[in-house]
């Protein structure tokens, strides 16, 4: 068997490369996926109750890239949706990201905007050099916000103290000196109207694309000829963990069903200080589905299991650089996506990366 291109991984990154290579460049493509389904961690399906579930946690598409949005819009229509999150702090729900209403609740005041801004400015700690995630929060939001919202949540999510994590972890979270309670402010936001799996299915529906599910590519090495290989799995796995395993955070999920239309006022509630779970998401807020039942998804971070999040700390970066050195020497193999490049990318970022790769590498 011979293919112009083999893509390892059928998530959004791999599907984008495969679709563009087949449709735009006329390549013969083999997609190899270890799981028994396509769409990667964005995979969704209807459960036994007929509720649409994001099996690997909530996925909300958002981007400022017109190109990425219009590219994916070839394969789906959209349910316009703007995500809202609350955090349970001291028995009350406060908005996330932190805005003026969050500050008012944490400081137990009800005053005008200039006074609220003044309160948080007084609490901010001067940090000569921001070196970790604790420094980020303390220098931007102060001790009260750090202690109430970030400190314990970060420990649960990453299994490390904020001072042991790169600034980029907490730096992803905005602080707003207004009352905008949307979690994202991107130009384009929404959920594929028939789900992510249907969208990816349409992306991969091309006669030049062949798909092998439930297959570990390492078992195929030597038996299939190809010109180019795109690897979207963990980069350390490709090299058989030559320098040791890169650290990842994983998740486990528990579902709780309720005989009511809704339970939560918003899609996601974070629990920074109580319990072992970090957040609870009610799927129907995302999907817009009409159903007599509803389901809550509880997320429990853990070290073992499928890799979800590269751990951004100095030790992991030093280890990754060793694998990156090997990867840069490859002529026919290219590493893409969150796991292939050990970067905490959003969905739109991996699609943009894949489109750029096809333009600049395959397109030549």
TrEMBL record:
Protein origin, superkingdom: Bacteria
MF term (GO), any: UDP-galactopyranose mutase activity
Keywords: FAD, Flavoprotein, Isomerase
EC number(s) reported in the record: 5.4.99.9
Domain (UDP-galactopyranose mutase C-terminal): residue spans on this chain: 148-344
EC class of the enzyme, as a word: isomerase
Cofactor(s) it depends on: FAD
PANTHER family, A to Z: UDP-GALACTOPYRANOSE MUTASE
Record family assignment: Belongs to the UDP-galactopyranose/dTDP-fucopyranose mutase family.
Protein name per the record: UDP-galactopyranose mutase
């Amino acid at each position: 068997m011979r293919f112009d291109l083999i893509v390892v991984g059928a998530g959004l990154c791999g599907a984008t490369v495969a679709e563009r290579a087949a449709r735009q460049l006329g390549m013969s493509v083999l997609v190899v996926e270890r799981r028994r389904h396509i769409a990667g961690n964005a995979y969704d399906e209807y459960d036994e109750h007929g509720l649409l579930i994001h099996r690997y946690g909530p996925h909300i598409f958002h981007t400022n890239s017109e190109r990425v949005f219009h590219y994916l819009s070839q394969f789906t229509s959209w349910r316009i949706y703007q995500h809202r999150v609350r955090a349970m702090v001291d028995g009350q729900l406060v908005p996330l990201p932190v805005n003026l209403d969050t500050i008012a609740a944490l400081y137990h005041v009800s005053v005008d905007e200039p006074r609220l801004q003044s309160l948080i400015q007084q609490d901010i700690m001067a940090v000569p050099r921001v070196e970790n995630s604790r420094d980020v929060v303390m220098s931007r939001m102060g001790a009260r916000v750090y202690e109430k919202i970030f400190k314990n949540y970060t420990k649960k999510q990453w299994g490390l103290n904020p001072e042991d994590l790169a600034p980029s972890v907490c730096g992803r979270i905005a602080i707003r000196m207004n009352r905008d309670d949307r979690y994202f402010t991107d130009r384009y936001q929404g959920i594929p109207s028939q789900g992510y799996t249907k969208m990816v299915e349409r992306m991969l529906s091309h006669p030049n694309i062949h798909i092998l599910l439930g297959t570990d590519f390492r078992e195929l090495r030597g038996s299939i000829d190809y010109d180019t290989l795109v690897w979207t799995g963990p980069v350390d796995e490709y090299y058989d963990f030559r320098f040791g395993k890169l650290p990842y955070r994983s998740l486990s999920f528990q579902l709780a069903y309720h005989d009511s239309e809704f339970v939560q006022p918003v899609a996601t509630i974070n629990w920074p200080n109580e319990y072992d779970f970090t957040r609870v998401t009610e799927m129907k807020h995302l999907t817009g589905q009409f159903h007599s039942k509803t389901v809550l998804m509880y997320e429990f971070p853990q070290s073992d299991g499928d890799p979800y999040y590269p751990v951004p700390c100095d030790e992991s970066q030093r280890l990754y650089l060793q694998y990156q050195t090997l990867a840069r020497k490859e002529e026919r193999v290219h590493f893409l996506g969150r796991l292939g490049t050990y970067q905490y990318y959003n969905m739109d970022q991996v699609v943009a990366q894949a489109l750029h790769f096809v333009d600049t590498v395959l397109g030549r």
